[in-house]
Design goal:
Blueprint (H helix, E strand, L loop, with lengths): L2 H20 L3 E2 L19 E5 L5 E5 L5 H9 L5 E8 L12 E10 L2 H15 L18 E4 H9 L3 H6 L1 H12 L9 H13 L9 E6 L17 E8 L2 E8 L4 H17 L9 H7 L5 E7 H9 L22
Parallel strand pairs: 1-4, 6-7
Antiparallel strand pairs: 2-3, 4-5, 5-10, 7-8, 8-9, 9-10
Helix pairs in contact: 2-9, 4-7, 6-7, 8-9
C-alpha cells in the first residue's frame, strides 16, 4: 500500500471536481449495473446476473465507461456535465498501465471536439502547477499542448500516407511491411495493420516533450464520433498523449440515431469476426443520441494521468488494494 500515491490521488480528484464546478459543469452519478457495457471492439466487460424472486434472471454488465449513461442524460436535456466514475475492464487489462478497475473522468459540453481541446489545455495547465508534479527532463507542462493530425503522425514517424492506405488495402499492407520490416498476416484488416504500425513506430514518440493531441482518425476507429465535413474522410476524434502514454480519448459526439445503430452493428460484426461475443445494443441510448445537441466529450483515465504527473511507473500504486501481479497486456 503506497500511502503517498493514494493521498496524491485524492488531492487530484478533489482538484478536478473544483475545476469543473468552477466552470459550471454539473456532476452526474451514473449506474454501475448497465444493460450494455460499451461497443468498443477490443474491450471486454465483467458480467453479473440479477435474480428475481420469480426465478427469472437479468444479465447486467459493469461499465467499461459511463459514456452511455451520460449520453442518456444529455438526451434528456442536461448540458455541461462531468463524472468521476469507477469503471471496469476484463480480459488482459492488468499491467504497468492497466488495472481491471480504475477511475475515469468524463466531461461533455455543447460544441465539438475543438471545445474539448481547449478544456484539456486549461486543465493540464492547472494541474501542471501542482506540488506533486515530478519534474521530467526535456518535458514541459507550461508550453501548451501540441496538436498533430493522425495522418501527419504516420507521415512523420512511419513515412506512410494513411489517407492512401484507407483507400487501398493491398498498398497499405505492402507499405506497412516495408515500414515495420516484418510480414503482415494475410488475414489482417486495415485496423489490425494500423495498430501494428501505431504501437511500434508512432505511439512511443507522442507527447515526449509536452502534452500532445493527435486528431482526426479514420472513421472505422470512431464509432461514436461525427465525421469531418465536407468530405467525411476523417472522424472528429482526438487522443491526448503525455510522455508516450494515452491519457484521454475525445469526440465530436455523433447525434444521428440511425447512423449510431449502424456503427454499433458494424462493431458487433467485427467482434464476431475476431472471435469475441457481440455486446448487447442499448436501444434507449440509440434514442437518446438523436435528442442530443451538438456536443463534444472526452474520457480520461485518472490513474494514468497521475502516473504522468508524479513519474510513477506502476498504476497499482494508486489503488488501496490492487489486483494481481504485473503481467503481459494486450492493447486497449
Amino acid at each position: 500500500m503506497n500511502k503517498l500515491r493514494i493521498k496524491q490521488k485524492r488531492i487530484v480528484i478533489n482538484l478536478l471536481r473544483e475545476f469543473f464546478d468552477d466552470r459550471g459543469f454539473f456532476e452526474l452519478e451514473t449506474p454501475l449495473l448497465v444493460p450494455s457495457p460499451g461497443m468498443e471492439v477490443h474491450l471486454h466487460s465483467f458480467k453479473t446476473v440479477y435474480d428475481q424472486y420469480d426465478g427469472s434472471k437479468t444479465q447486467y454488465h459493469l461499465p467499461t465507461s459511463p459514456e452511455f449513461a451520460i449520453k442518456k442524460a444529455l438526451g434528456a436535456g442536461f448540458g455541461k456535465v462531468f463524472e468521476i466514475a469507477r469503471v471496469f475492464r476484463n480480459q488482459g487489462e492488468l499491467g504497468p498501465q492497466h488495472h481491471p478497475e480504475f477511475n475515469m473522468l468524463e466531461w461533455y459540453r455543447p460544441g465539438s471536439y475543438l471545445d474539448i481541446m481547449e478544456d484539456v489545455e486549461c486543465l493540464l495547465a492547472h494541474l501542471g502547477e501542482m506540488d506533486i508534479v515530478n519534474p521530467v527532463s526535456d518535458f514541459s507542462w507550461s508550453d501548451g499542448v501540441n496538436r498533430i493530425s493522425i495522418n501527419e503522425c504516420f507521415m512523420h514517424y512511419a513515412n506512410i500516407d494513411l489517407q492512401d492506405g484507407m483507400k487501398n488495402l493491398d498498398q497499405w499492407r505492402v507499405e506497412a511491411q516495408d515500414a515495420l520490416h516484418e510480414r503482415i498476416p494475410d488475414d489482417d484488416q486495415f485496423d489490425d495493420i494500423f495498430f501494428r504500425i501505431w504501437m511500434k513506430l508512432i505511439e512511443p514518440h507522442l507527447g515526449k516533450h509536452r502534452p500532445e493531441i493527435v486528431y482526426d482518425y479514420p472513421p472505422s476507429m470512431a464509432a461514436l464520433s461525427k465525421l469531418k465535413q465536407p468530405d467525411l474522410q476523417w472522424a472528429e476524434r482526438f487522443e491526448l498523449y503525455i510522455q508516450g502514454v494515452e491519457i484521454g480519448n475525445a469526440f465530436s459526439e455523433l447525434t444521428d440515431s440511425q447512423e449510431q445503430l449502424k456503427r454499433f452493428e458494424m462493431a458487433n460484426r467485427e467482434r464476431q469476426r475476431i472471435g469475441y461475443p457481440p455486446h448487447p445494443i442499448d436501444t434507449e441510448l440509440i434514442d437518446s443520441v438523436g435528442k442530443m445537441q451538438a456536443t463534444g466529450g472526452i474520457a480520461m483515465g485518472i490513474e494514468r494521468l497521475l502516473m504522468t504527473l508524479t513519474g510513477e511507473q506502476d498504476i497499482r500504486e494508486f489503488f488501496l488494494y490492487p489486483l494481481g501481479n504485473i503481467g503481459e497486456t494486450r492493447r486497449r
